[in-house]
Amino acid sequence: MCGIAGYCGAVSVSQDGNTLLRQMINAIAHRGPDENGVHVTDGAGLGHMRLSIVGLADGQQPMESASGNLVISYNGEVFNYVELRDDLIAQGHRFRTGSDTEVILHLYEEMGPDCVKKLNGDFAFALWDKKRRRMMLARDRMGVRPLFYTWHEGALFFASEIKALLRVPGMATEVDPYALDQIFTLWTPIAPRTIFKGISELPPAHLMIIEDQRVKVTPYWQLDYPDRDAVRSSRSESDVGEELRHLLTDATRIRLRADVPVGSYLSGGLDSSVVSAIAARIVPDQLRTFSIGFDTAEHDETAFQMQMVEALGTRHSSLSCSKSDIAAIFPAVIEHTERPILRTAPAPLYLLSHLAHNEGYKVVLTGEGADEIFAGYDIFREAKVRRFCARQPESRMRPHLFRKLYPYLPGLKQQTPEYLAAFFGAGVDGLDDPLHSHRPRFRGTAATKMFFSPELREALKGYDATEDLASGLPKDYARWHPLHQAQYLETSLLMPGYILCCQSDRMAMAHGLEGRFPFLDHRLVEFASRVPVGMKLKGLGEKHILKQATRDLVPASITARQKQPYRAPDSQSFTAAGLPDYVREYMGSEAIADTGLFSAPAVAKLLEKCSRNAPTGYRDDSAFVGILSTQLWHQKFTNQTHRQTVAAA
Q: Which annotated residues bind L-glutamine (predicted)?
């Protein structure tokens, strides 16, 4: 894992390339505290901050090919580099290092830009082909590693994080009102849009090629599912489960490749427990585990974490996160997310990453991705119930089904059948709506926009983020099963845009820690897309096939427990012990009016309500965290008030 930065084109005469690259990589030094380097050539420059994990002694970057024609700056890991290296040696290639970085250079010599199709890994890299004067930017299939770019004074600048781009002289920063609307509706901007106007994100599984004054951005891989009317597979559940187990074991095995120790997170849920159990079998008596607990009972999973520690016999470190801990580190969290967020969930992971780093670890395995690819989230069950209710509106089962959806939200169980039907939008959304599965979430989140200022509303002029999302769906999307449609939305939007970005890469790399995700091995993702829907969501039982395939790895209490999504206290984190000074300042009427993004009277009422610890629901919690994080982001990253930028939007 590392941080990269660079440019393609002529940089300003006021600054030489070496100095510029040094400034850019210094802004992201936390991503690679071990080594750094720059490479400047005619028409391009590459910079690198290194977190040394593979090829400790000889993996310095930027790295040139033996011929000197190619140079690469690379962030991430290619987990199948051993097999690729052997194949390339058989074809006559000679290697000078033991790093996975050099494998990409040789593979590019053989295949050109198509080399990315051979890579099994999490990566973002820039490769400069001097002979062709071609710059190639690439990002991994699932969007694990970030890559941002912008055009400035005729040159392309790119980096792992936006704060590096802000070191380019003359770079102005403005809020993109449409991206802000997307965050307050969808939780994330729709790539390539970012919250910074004029700065873009290279979408997952995409290449950018700059050659002969032409720029081309193209996908090299696409998440796909079978048609809903396709002939059903005749494979047995045990056969499917056996293949799943084999793929997951191999995905974990190659993610243990490193020249440094690899640890594992334990959340107390099925996914991280399974990954840790497989890893413990591959490296017996060596695995170190890490977990975080809460002082609030509804969020704490310590009991389940300790069950897994006892079952695996790992050396374990844990910490307890309080509401005041979240409030204390939240400004630092926003500095690393580089965008507003609607939940505090990244904050505890920031603390957990710090714990692993302090224990001397650079790499951890985690369970991210299992809920998306094997239908583990409540939203999949909810969509199935809503479809049943829309087809059978008079069914007496309706209220009972709704009450089963969220056992960890006891308030819902006390509501009337009429309230529950209205809450979940039963019968409201057409079954042919491409966003049917997510409409209740989008409506609930979009309610936070009641706090937008009149100026922001005018700038948006009726813009609808959900229409924007629906317009970019794949051409085959309508032919997929409704569960697959819902999985696509989670996997292609929320996972890279929020889960992997704000909760995983950024919180880990804030402390020079690399997260690895066996469930996001593209072989396993492609396999899961073909698993029959009834093996993933069986009745209302989530991740059925995963549970069946791994039931011997974890205690029955872990497999049988009700799904509890990872959550953290939201507005209560900032109000339980009295408002921190920075909250009073940035959510105060003067600061709100100066930023111009929100209605000062409406925010004042919200702040007063939360300050007296009145009961808050989803809307108020999301609005509080969203407004506070936006204000913190604006203070940290912009150099113009929103009132000035809205006029230019």
A: 100
pLDDT of residue 639: 63
74 and 214: one domain?
A: yes
Q: Are residues 203 and 238 in the same domain?
A: no
The pLDDT of residue 566 is above 90: no
Written as one letter, the residue type at 631 is Q
Residues 13 and 118 occupy one common structural domain: yes
Same-domain pairing of 494 and 625: no
Please give the model's pTM, rounded to 2 decimal places.
Answer: 0.94
Torsional sign, CA 6, 219, 180, 424: negative
In the predicted structure, residue 42 carries a pLDDT above the cut 60 = yes
DSSP letter for each residue of 386-407? HHHHHH-TT-TTHHHHHHHH-T
Task: Read off the pLDDT of each residue in 258-280 and give the average, rounded to a whole number.
Answer: 96
> What is the per-residue pLDDT for 388?
83
Number of domains in the chain: 3
Other CB atoms within 10 Å distance of the CB of residue 244: 21
Of 2, 321, 389, 502, catalytic: 2
User: Is 411 inside any structural domain?
Assistant: yes
Helix (H) or strand (E) holding 147: none
Residues 6+ apart with CB under 8 A from 396: none
Identify whether residues 42 and 125 lie together within a single domain: yes
Query: Which position has the token pair 């690899």?
Result: 262
Buried b / exposed e along 78-96 (16+ C-beta atoms within 10 A): bbbbeebbebbeeeebeee
Peptide bond into 192 cis (omega under 30): yes
Domain of 628, in residue numbers: 571-648
Share of the chain above pLDDT 70, in %: 92
Which value, to the nearest 10 degrees, does the dihedral of the CA atoms of residues 561, 562, 565, 566 take? Answer: -30
Q: Is-contact 626 340, C-beta < 8 A?
A: yes
Q: In this model, does residue 428 exceed pLDDT 90?
A: no
* 100 in a labelled binding site: yes
| Residues ≥6 apart with Cβ < 8 Å to 215 | 156, 208, 209
> Tell me, what's the pLDDT at 386?
87
Asked if residue 206 is part of any domain, the answer here is yes
- For residues 90 and 409, the model is more confident at 90
Question: What's the CATH code of the domain at 68?
Answer: 3.60.20.10
Last residue of a domain, one of 177, 192, 219: 219
Q: What single-letter amino acid sits at 431?
A: L
Question: Is 2 known to be catalytic?
Answer: yes
292 annotated ligand-binding residue: yes
